[in-house]
Predict the structure.
Amino acid sequence: MKEINPEWEVSVAQVKEMLDRRESFLLLDVREPDEYAICRIDGAHLVPLGELAARCEELRTLAADRPIVTQCHHGGRSLNAAILLRKLGFEGVRSMAGGINGWSIQIDPAVPRY
């Protein structure tokens, strides 16, 4: 497993712990709708990466000053989303390293892999 940068990333295990503790954060799925239809983490909100900038105000309302954790298939797009959102003024956004694929492997094998 690759080492994660805690300033920019959070592990799938950490996200699971956050969910289990019912922490207040926005889990933002930045995959495409067809990917989201295959599998998703309960409570994740879909906004595809290509729509983030255009939906910035919607995201401000959704996040409501809560931390944001971005999530994708393997972690690349979600890291790009975290970078973009920080450039748009969102503070402390982090990416879920390993994406939903890592979630399926480490947390919930019932989540389909693709």
In short: The first helix runs from residue 12 to 20. The chain has one domain: 9-106. The radius of gyration is 13 Å.
